[in-house]
What we know:
The chain folds into 2 domains: 1-92, Phosphorylase Kinase, domain 1; 96-259, no CATH class.
Amino acid sequence: NAEAINNEKKTGFQLEVGDLLAKGSFSSTFLATTVPDMSGNFSEVAKVGLKKHHQKYAKEQEILHVVNGQKHFPRLVLAGESSKYTFIVMELAGEDLKTVIERNRFGLTSNKNAIRLAHRLHGAVGFLHTKNFFHPRRRSSFLNYFLPAALSPYCEAEDHCHVAVLCVKLLKDLSCIPRRRSVFWASHVTQFEFPKLEEEHQWIELIWMNLCGCVENKDTKFSFIATFLDAAVDGFDKRSDLDYNTNTGRLRLEDRDTD
């Protein structure tokens, strides 16, 4: 747990509180907890690698010193930015995201669970944009590919693109793509070896085909992504299928269908 890691005196300070969640937008992501017997009490620590990887262990140690001894983490525990590194620490309540990601990566998720994950990712990316964690010059290599001088620093549709890419990456381990390279470079979109999906997941492939069309046509009309997310399951209701606790203000993934 976080306290044990903070008490570790070995040279090099090695983090042992969790696993990488996914390769891609984050340089490194792990889970930390100060209450190991309560599996739902995790702090999701995501360091956004928008700049050169620098002083990794020092930053991890600084983060863990902040969460050390706290049984209840605030919504935003810590955020910081140096000349070469950006990181955030956020709370994660309910079912831990690592479990959800493993379910997606190995194809054991239902369509509804995939959509729930998409909405969580959408919210996370949107939150980062509101906090200006994405540098204006790094707003998206995908958008820079089109009109780098004419576009505003942040396009509202950009987070939909992040969601679509991350959903697919969770279904397939992309060992051929370095995790700190932008997932929106043209070659990443059009040359992606798409995994074979079951019928209920083919809506993700349709999103990908539309993204490829945007690249080929130099078009930034991404509204189709939100349409797919809302209509992928007949009768899907975001409000009812995402359990919202009004007392704590936390979202929790329902585990009603894991087939």
